[in-house]
Structure formats: structure tokens, C-alpha cells
Amino acid sequence: MSRVSFGWSLLVVCLAAMFAVVPRGAEQGSTIQDETAELPLVTQAEFDGWMTELSNWGRWGPDDELGALNLVTPEKKTEAARLVTEGFSVSLASTATTEATVDNPCPITWEMVRATRTGASDTIGYPCIHGPGTTHLDAFAHIFFDGKMWNGYDAVDLVTVEGGAAKNSILNMKNGIVTRGVLYDIPRLKGVPYLQPGERISVADLEAWEAQSGVKVGPGDAMFIRWGRWARQEDIGPFDTGAEAAGPDNAVIPWLRERDVAVIGWETPGYAPSPEGDELGRLAVHNFALTMLGMQLIDRGDFDALAEAAAARGRWEFMLTIAPLPIPNGTGSPVNPIAIF
Asked: Domains along the chain?
């Protein structure tokens, strides 16, 4: 073989290696999983200590039912409104569906009951407000620790099947939530379309995103954490988000308390599967933030359109509005959060 022929052959091999097709997230995923495996697990003893050290119970008075929403002052709302410079809005909710699937075993019910020449009417129902198929806002009456809900209220006496939530119900948020929102797009940070099941998002990840995006959450803000749940579904099809999901590591709890976040939103409420030795389970951050820190939670959001809009503008902060249904004694409400740039 001539030197010229050999050179061309070597070039072809090198180019083939450079442009070899790698399944979406596969090569990056192995590195990510290695990094995740190195994260130390929060122990039960640490978590139990935080119940006292980090608790916001009593911070806004013994009768408080708003929690960290007390940090969303009129000044905070005005500050958020100043972020609107072009009037472009985008939804942070997933589209409701009526079909049961592996990722939505409890869909909404919908029926057209009247359609005539003079008008039409339909009915809609949410059999599982807190289910995986509905973007919703959790009320403090949703989760308890040892029979106690937010601010130390006795859930056994105040939340019953017969009467619903006499305290900490979703009705407390009837006037809605308006504040500054910030998106933390972790797949974009890591250069992957989506994170892998079981991957834990660390404080280092969140702060690396802040350094890259130039924005960070502070008191009274709403924080949205994207791991790519919907991008993964588009790639592989529907999957059980209770068994396969990424999410914030339990070690972010003190960080959230320090930042005084008022609202947290995510695509799934925890990472799964949990690593061996994780005694706390996948919902530790979800439950602690709601019950002990008094932070409002947006569960099961869809942040893909938000991520595209933010990336197109190079802006990761926006005005946020959330308007829950005024359900007396309810433990949560379907919502359609809106980001406005």
C-alpha cells in the first residue's frame, strides 16, 4: 500500500470514529452515573437533625398557613413584573390526557354532555389530583411527618376523610402566586438531552448552573428544576416515572432553606431507583420542603417549552403566575403555571 493510500485510509477511520452515532444520552449517561454514585447519601441521623435545625415552623407566627409565601411581598411581585420586557408567555404544565398509560395510570375524566345549535357543555374530573398525570400545586395538608403538617398543626384532628383539610388547605392560595421564577436546566448544563434514571442533582450541579446562566434563586423566588422527563419520553416512549426518574439529591435541603425559596417545581418529585443504602426514599426533598420548610410545590410540570424559550433569549428568569382552583378543604389543585418574559 502506498503512503497516500495509507494516509487516506487512516483519515477515513479517524473521521468514522469522530462521527460515530451514539445513542442519545448513552455515552454521557455512563459518566453521569459514575458521578452520581460518588455522591454520599444523606443519613437518617442527618435528616432527623434537620427536622429541628432547619424547620421554619413558627417563623411567621403560630397560626401561619402560608409558609414561605410570606416572602412573596408586594415589592417582590413588583420586582417580578419588571422582568416582563416582551410579553411572551409559556405554560409550565403538561397537557391533560384521558387515556391511562404507564406514566399516567390515573388520567382525567372528560365528557361532552351537550352540543346543540345554541351552545355546548362538558364535564371534567381529576380523580387523582396528586397523580403522575397532572401538573398540580400541593397544599400543606398533603404531607405529614408523624401526624404533624406544616407549622406543627395536628393532621390527625384537622385533616379527615369526612371534612377534608380544616387547616393548610389549597384555599389559602386563592389569590394566586406571582413572583420571580428561575429555571435550572440541568441537562443543558451537562450537555445531554436528559438525565438518566436514578441520577441525583447535587448542590454543585445547581451552583454550576448558576455560574453558567448568570442567575440564581433568592428569597421569595420560584425555582424550577428540569431533568428532561419529557425529552426522555419523546425519545423512548412512555415510562413509569415512579421507577425511572432523576431529581435533586437529599443534600440540597439545607441549600433550599438557606436560599429561602418560596416555590419549587419539578417534572417528577424524586429520583428513582434509589441507590442501595438510601434509607430516606425518593420523596425526602419533596416531603421536607413542603412540611418543614413551608415551600409550595409544583409537581409533574413540563419545562421543555420553557427551556427552549429561555435558551432562545439567553434569559433564565421570568415572571411567574400560578392560579390554583379555590377548592375548600382541598389538599391540592391542578394548575397551569405561566412564565412571562
From this structure: 40-97+133-340 (3.50.30.50)
